[in-house]
Specification:
Layout (H helix, E strand, L loop, with lengths): L4 H13 L4 E6 L6 H11 L4 E7 L1 H8 L8 H10 L5 E5 L5 H7 L3 E5 L10 H6 L3 E5 L7 H11 L2
Parallel strand pairs: 1-2, 1-4, 2-3, 4-5
């Protein structure tokens, strides 16, 4: 389900009262591939509910460059929200998910293992509130950039 931050705060409060573990991760999730799905399955397995913070198109352009994203934010949000492990998707326009993390204070914060723990945005907030930060290894060395480069090489 695609929700606003205000809706997400209410949902989070409800699950907190029910002692349910809320897992949060974020990213651009442009051209969703098997590596993304594996990552999301592993993230969901660490708690009861998985929330994905999704960078808006403007945010992706600032981070990845003017040619990205390939799929717009509505398409990416719809695809993510349709995946079995994902319970909620919330768009954010900032370059980092710091605001969402500060508002939600998830029980578990997830990032890919390409991030060192000390560089993960929101780590301090989550840990100060008794939560934990976990990194997940990627499978098959998949990436959207590699897919784009393969397409460009094959269809020049």
């Amino acid at each position: 389900m695609i929700v606003s931050l205000d809706e997400l705060k209410k949902i989070r409060e409800y699950y907190k009262k029910k002692s349910k573990k809320v897992v949060f991760t974020n990213g651009c999730f442009d051209l969703i591939h098997s590596g993304h799905v594996d990552y999301l399955i592993k993230a969901k397995n660490l708690g009861d509910y998985l929330i994905v913070g999704l960078n808006t198109d403007d945010s992706v352009r600032r981070i990845k460059g003017e040619k990205r994203p390939i799929l717009n934010q509505n398409e990416r949000a719809f695809i993510l929200s349709s995946l079995k492990p994902v319970d909620f998707v919330c768009l954010f326009d900032e370059d980092t998910p710091a605001k969402i993390i500060a508002e939600l204070i998830p029980d578990i914060l997830i990032k890919g293992s390409d991030w060192s723990i000390d560089k993960i945005v929101g780590r301090d907030i989550v840990e100060e509130n008794g939560g934990k930060v976990v990194t997940i290894d990627f499978v098959n060395n998949q990436s959207t950039s590699k897919i784009i480069n393969t397409i460009l090489e094959r269809y020049k």
